[in-house]
Structures are given as structure tokens and as C-alpha cells.
Amino acid sequence: MICHGCSVNNYRNVESAQIEFADEVNVLVGDNGQGKTNIVEAIYLCSVGRSFRGADEAEMIKFGESGAQISVDFSDSVRKQNITMHLFRDKRRQVEQNRVKITRMSDMIGSLSSVLFCPEHLSVVKEGPAMRRNYLDIAISQLRPVYISALQRYTKVLKQRNKLIRDAEDDRRTFNETIDFWSDQLAAEAATIARLRVEYLRRARVLVASFFSDMTGGREVPELIYAGSSHDEEDMYLDAAATKAKYLKLLSENHDREIGAGTTLWGIHKDDITINLNDHPARVFASQGQQRSIALAMKLSEGEICREERGEYPIFLLDDVLSELDAGRRNYLINEIKGRQVIMTTCETLPVGDAKVIKVDGGRYY
Ligand SMILES: Nc1ncnc2c1ncn2[C@@H]1O[C@H](COP(=O)(O)OP(=O)(O)OP(=O)(O)O)[C@@H](O)[C@H]1O
Ligand SMILES: [Mg+2]
Predict the structure, then answer these.
(1) Domain check: are 83 and 162 in the same one?
(2) pLDDT digits 0-9 by tens, 19-53
(3) Would you state the pLDDT for residue 350?
(4) Same domain, residue pair 254 and 341
(5) Which of 49, 85, 107, 134 is the most buried (most CB within 10 A)?
């Protein structure tokens, strides 16, 4: 996958810019607040469908403007493609892929495949479960459109079910009449999602162990295990019927607990990945350096699985990560992603060998 370039209008602090990328390493260099991450965010938006900074659409539109536009040219092994996205303050975004309007984001996501490395990802081991679920969600979404649809349906059903739980005190009758319907839907989508997550994790953990040992040259072995909120062995989640039955049982037998908590207590929105190092929880026992090595290994695995599935590497987006790493890990990463397309940002000049340097100054790129 190669991103040839992008053109951006009224996006954050960028009034208008056309940027061409080299097929290998590209470095966006500039002082703080000049617009380096904005470009990475724009490309990621056309890849994954949302901002990695959690921004909503209006936030990404330049102050005082009514809309923004991003257009990205890229090629996969088969053909040249373009994704153009229009963001508006007062209506839904419009997306075109190869000049054809797209109505479902799941049709676009994964066309321009990418792996993002940013400083927050380096703490995936010690952060809360949401970040680890996000790791799986983003990676799998790019490979399996069915995953995106299931996740979207799950989120909708969860919202409905949570509302029903919150309203139960005032309206127990509606709760009693409809809760089973929502529980069934939720359990069904949860089973699909959990199965795809476990399948993915099983591939990732082999690669994570191998990258980790390569990087550290040590004897420690990291292991990633799916920790579903129903507390079953990982194997169960490969069996969609068993998973659905298990979640449905939990959701049916604990109404009072859920009403007390005011929310749905079981489901894939509560699942986690347990990360061990030599059989001990890495979150607690691994050193900060080891935790970072595991995080980098997880990201590199994401690129590797993408290549196994699609026959080519995704583009590697590195926002501010090199400066966060010590020399050993930095060199390992640079060496691993050699020969692939990289778009990275940095404030300082870093030793990355041959690279196209793009200077960034107040939303201008040259
Ligand atoms: N909606 C917006 N409209 C106009 N400017 C915006 C908008 N959103 C953010 N900005 C501006 O964009 C700039 C931040 O850009 P960006 O995050 O790309 O910086 P950066 O070069 O990556 O900086 P750092 O090195 O600190 O990470 C800030 O100056 C911010 O005020
Ligand atoms: Mg930045």
C-alpha cells in the first residue's frame, strides 16, 4: 500500500495544502502546534473512518469555516485509488471512493490500510481495557467489513439496552416486556465479535512473542490472552453458539444487578486482553521498557497480519513516537519498517536515514 499524496482544505489549521509522499520514509518536521499530527489524523480518517484523537467532525473543521475536505491518493497492489471526504458542521460527512459516493463507512474502511503508532499506544499494556479493545477493533475492522457492521449493531443495541436499564425504576413494565429482545440481540452480536477478536488475537500473539524476543534478545515470553467478560476460557469464544448462550444467560439472570449498576454489565464492551510476561501480568510486573517493547511488538504484528491477509504492508503512520523511544527500541523499529512506506512526525531531526523531509509551519507544508 502506498499513499501518494493528499490534499487538504480547511482542515484544522490547514487552509489549503497539497502534499506528495515518497514511497518510503516521509518525515513531517516542525515546531509544536504547526500541523504535523493534523496531516496524520487526516490520512487516518480516510483509512479508519475516525480521528485517533477522539475528535468529532466539527472539531476537525477549521475555525470559522463551514466544511473541510480531505482527498487521499493511494495504490494497492491492484490499482490506484482515491478517497475524498467532506466534513460539514451541520450535516453528515460525504465520502467518495474513486469518485463514487459511499453510504456505509464499512465499504471504505480498510481500503487504505494503515497502522498507527502514537505515544498513547506505548502504554497499551498498563492502560485500561478500552485501549486494548480499541487495538483489536481498529485492526480487525480494516480486515473484516463484517466486524464493523457487527460492532455498529452492537453499539446501537447496547445503547438501547442501557436506556431500558436506566428507565427501569420508572417503567418496569416496558423493561420486563422488552429486555429479552435486546439481550438476545446483544448476545448474538457479542458472539460474532468475540470470535473474530479471539481469532485475531491468536495470530497476533505468536507474532508479538517473536517480535518481542527479537527486540529484547531476552528469554522472557509475552502472551496475550482474550479475557472475555463472562470469564470463560479463550476457547469458548471461538464457538459463537456457546458464547451467545453464555452471554444471554448472564444478561437474563442478573436484571436487578444491572438495574442497580444502571448499565449492561456483560458483553464485548467489557472484554479485555490479559497480557502476561513469563506468566505474570505484564501490567504489574513488567518494567516500563518491557511494556513498551510489548506495545511495539503488538503494533508491528498488526502490520504483519495485514500483510499476510492482503499481500502487502499497510502504510505506517508514526505520530511522535520515535522521540519517545530509547535508542535500542527506536533503531529496532526503524529497521523493522525499512522498505515500507512510513509517514512520521517529529519536532527534532532524527537519524532515520534516507527520507523525504516535509517542513511544517503554520499549516503549510514544503
Ligand atoms: N478546528 C481547528 N481550526 C483551526 N486550527 C485548529 C483546529 N484544530 C486544531 N487547530 C490548530 O492546529 C494546531 C495543532 O496542530 P497539530 O496537532 O497538527 O500540531 P503538531 O505540529 O502535531 O504539534 P505537536 O508537535 O505539539 O504535536 C494547533 O495550533 C491548533 O490550534
Ligand atoms: Mg503532534
Answers:
(1) no
(2) 999 999 999 999 999 999 999 999 999 999 999 99
(3) 66
(4) no
(5) 85
